[in-house]
Structure formats: structure tokens, C-alpha cells
């Protein structure tokens, strides 16, 4: 087989103690606990549509290895054992079948990326053995050498990596240590770090914030132009402190559009010209007697009233909490991205809210993956909807508190070149 076309190899079957397998769990920062990122739809190969108890392992070049599992209907059915590995390439959406391991690994199996780029595939129900897979990238040419890198990284900083092959490095990747059990790794995370070549090797940018890289241990890899990974350097990502800032308060001034004009979605854009809109302080609305800016009550009631406000942020946002006062439905957008909605079925101007609430007040911790906030000028836009044509009241006010990442100072640099 020609170089670069290897299907990988499986190595020794080992007797192991499974109590020792799996990397340490990584402490999650409070900002990211219990939050989910948007689902990523992957095209599945025909073999894997009904696969269960398989392991997926992120590899340092950004591909995904699938090992083990069964394709038949039983819970842990050896008759449907899938022994061959498969590789998924997110950039192309392609699946490739790779070499087969010897032993069925289903329920209670585990797989873990090793610092040298190989993958440990182990266990299965009552199965006390492990095999090691050498992915095809290990047969594509010489490995780049990661000579030296800091032991600790802080988000928002740059750091130096020494390598004699700096000009041949295509990617620098940071992978969280795996924590795998029952065919599921609970701590997989891969970040591709931007880099540039300098006279000492590579200047690499650490992840922007702990939202992207929660504090804990990671493996730092260099990947060559040929796709071959270095042996990893273990690094510790530190936590950058945040300071809390009240960005928008109840009673603040807003621009508002209550003229019953359908603006489509143009009013969400940062560059939308709201200079003709009126201005006033919260609370907005009518019908309750608690309004600072009284909006006109009409029959039929106007379905949608719009609000916009610009604000500045001095650093990356690590957490954000909205406090809403609304009646009857509301949707809120940060820089054009919807961050929450209540009682909104369809956003279209003429559509009324799907339910009614009386001066509802609610705090909402925003999901920041992806993070809609930017350093500098931001635009918050909201729409408040009446529940129906005869509804006699409307309310809107909003507060925004954010955690802003403090400027990080690198904990350590590289020692002087010897
Ligand atoms: Ca109402
Ligand atoms: Ca009110």
C-alpha cells in the first residue's frame, strides 16, 4: 500500500485494569455548567446509521475516529459486532473504513486518544483486554517535533512553541483529556489555535476565553502539512477571572419603534438606521399604570413593538444574565443572534404572541456557545408582542449583567533559548 493510504494498524491485545482507564474529569467553570452548544448534523455512513455502543474519539488533526459497537438490534449483540474502525472528516463530510480490531467492544467499552496520537480501545462487557490503533496519519511521513511549550496557558494570551519544523506546521490543536466510559467520552473538546511562524518557532494564540476552553489539562499537538501529528505536550489551561458589569439597567433609555410598520428582520442588524425611532426610558407599555414611557393603546392592538440599544464591552464576555419584564411575548437578539424568547411562535410582524403573561419578570442565564457578544460595540434588539387584537396591556423593560474576562497575564513563558 502506498504511503499515505494506510488503513491504520491495531497493535497488542493487553490485559488491563479498567478501573485505571480514562483521564481525569476536568473541572467546569461556573459559566458553562449545564449548557449545550448547537447540534452539529453529521452525514452518517450506511454502516453507522444503527450502530450502538461504539466510541467516537476526536483526533489531533480534527478528524473523528469511530471504533467498536454493534449494528444489530440487541442491546449488546456480538452477532452484529463492527470490528473495523471508521474515520470521519468534518471538512469534507467523508467517511473512510479503516483496519479492524480483533475483539468485539460494545457495552462497557472505552476509547481514549493517547499523547502520541494513537488510540486505546478497550473493554466491553466482561472483556478484560485493550488494543491500540495507529491511525493512518502516522504512516504519512515524519512526525513534527514539539520541542518546547509552556506548561500552562491562559485564555486570551499568546504563547511560544519551539519546533524545528515551524514552516511545515499546518495546524496547532488543543484537545481536552478524554474521560471515557460506557462508550461515551464526556470530556472531548478540540480547539484549533491560530499560529504564525517567528524566529523561535511558532507564536500561538491561546483560546479566547474559558467559554471555549474550560480550565483543566489538555494535550497540545502540532500537525504537519502532511497531516501527521507531533507527540503532545501536556498543558494546563488556567482560569481567567471575570469582573461583573451591569451593562443595561431597568429604566435605561431605548430606541423604540411602535408605529406598526413591518420591518422584516432588518431591525436586527447592527447597522440598521434607527435614527427616526423615538427614545424613552423603561418601563415601556400601557394599561398597567407602571410605565415610564407610555405607548399608544390601539384597537386592534399592534402585534409587535421593537426596541434597540447599543452598548460597549471592554473585553470578552464569559457569562451573561438578562432580566426581562415583559407582557405578553418577547424575543431578544444580541448582534442579530436570538438569545431568548418567551411566548413567541413566529417572529413575523403581524403575528401575535402565543400566550399571555401579566407583567412577567424573569432572569435568564444566556447560553454563550457560540458567544454572540463582541469586544467593542454591541447591539441588543428586542420585540415585544401582544397576545391578541383586544389585549389591553403591554410591558417591556430589560437589564443585562455580564461577566467580562479580565486581561490575562501569561503564567509562564519559555525559558531563554539554550
Ligand atoms: Ca397584553
Ligand atoms: Ca407594565
UniProtKB/TrEMBL annotation:
Pfam families per the UniProt record, alphabetical: GO-like_E_set
Domain Galactose oxidase-like Early set: 143-237
Transmembrane segments: none
Family matches, as InterPro entries: Gal_Oxase/kelch_b-propeller, Gal_Oxidase_central_sf, Galactose-bd-like_sf, GO-like_E_set, Ig-like_fold, Ig_E-set
Listed SUPFAM superfamilies: E set domains, Galactose oxidase, central domain, Galactose-binding domain-like
The protein's name: Galactose oxidase-like Early set domain-containing protein
Highest classification ranks of the organism: Bacteria, Pseudomonadati, Myxococcota, Myxococcia, Myxococcales
Amino acid at each position: 500500500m502506498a504511503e499515505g493510504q494506510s488503513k491504520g494498524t491495531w497493535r497488542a491485545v493487553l490485559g488491563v485494569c479498567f478501573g485505571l482507564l480514562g483521564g481525569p474529569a476536568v473541572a467546569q467553570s461556573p459559566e458553562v455548567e449545564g449548557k449545550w452548544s448547537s447540534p452539529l448534523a453529521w452525514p452518517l455512513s450506511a454502516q453507522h446509521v444503527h450502530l450502538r455502543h461504539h466510541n467516537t474519539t476526536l483526533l489531533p488533526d480534527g478528524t473523528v475516529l469511530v471504533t467498536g459497537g454493534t449494528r444489530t438490534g440487541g442491546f449488546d449483540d456480538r452477532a452484529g459486532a463492527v470490528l473495523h474502525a471508521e474515520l470521519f472528516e468534518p471538512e469534507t463530510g467523508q467517511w473512510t473504513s479503516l483496519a479492524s480490531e480483533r475483539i468485539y467492544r460494545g457495552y462497557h467499552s472505552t476509547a481514549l486518544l493517547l499523547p502520541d496520537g494513537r488510540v486505546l480501545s478497550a473493554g466491553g462487557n466482561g472483556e478484560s483486554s485493550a488494543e491500540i490503533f495507529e491511525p493512518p496519519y502516522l504512516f504519512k511521513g515524519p512526525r513534527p517535533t514539539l520541542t518546547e511549550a509552556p506548561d500552562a496557558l491562559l485564555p486570551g494570551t499568546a504563547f511560544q512553541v519551539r519546533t524545528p519544523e515551524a514552516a511545515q506546521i499546518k495546524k496547532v490543536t488543543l484537545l481536552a483529556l478524554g474521560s471515557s466510559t460506557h462508550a461515551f467520552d464526556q470530556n472531548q473538546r478540540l480547539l484549533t489555535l491560530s499560529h504564525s511562524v517567528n524566529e523561535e518557532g511558532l507564536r500561538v494564540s491561546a483560546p479566547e476565553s474559558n467559554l471555549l476552553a474550560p480550565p483543566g489539562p489538555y494535550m497540545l499537538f502540532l500537525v504537519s502539512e502532511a497531516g501527521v501529528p507531533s507527540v503532545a505536550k501536556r498543558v494546563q489551561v488556567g482560569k481567567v477571572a471575570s469582573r461583573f458589569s451591569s451593562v443595561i439597567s431597568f429604566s435605561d433609555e431605548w430606541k423604540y419603534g411602535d408605529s406598526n410598520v413591518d420591518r422584516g428582520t432588518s431591525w436586527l442588524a447592527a447597522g440598521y438606521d434607527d435614527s427616526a425611532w423615538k427614545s424613552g426610558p423603561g418601563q415601556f407599555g400601557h394599561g398597567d399604570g407602571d410605565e415610564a414611557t407610555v405607548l399608544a393603546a390601539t384597537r386592534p392592538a399592534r402585534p409587535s413593538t421593537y426596541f434597540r440599544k447599543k452598548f460597549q464591552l471592554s473585553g470578552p464576555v464569559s457569562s451573561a444574565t438578562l432580566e426581562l419584564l415583559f407582557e405578553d411575548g418577547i424575543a431578544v437578539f444580541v448582534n442579530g443572534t436570538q438569545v431568548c424568547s418567551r411566548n413567541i411562535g413566529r417572529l413575523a410582524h403581524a403575528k401575535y404572541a402565543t400566550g399571555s403573561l401579566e407583567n412577567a419578570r424573569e432572569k435568564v442565564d444566556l447560553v454563550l456557545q457560540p458567544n454572540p457578544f463582541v469586544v467593542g460595540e454591541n447591539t441588543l434588539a428586542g420585540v415585544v408582542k401582544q397576545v391578541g387584537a383586544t389585549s389591553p396591556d403591554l410591558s417591556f423593560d430589560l437589564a443585562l449583567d455580564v461577566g467580562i474576562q479580565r486581561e490575562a497575564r501569561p503564567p509562564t513563558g519559555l525559558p531563554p533559548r539554550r
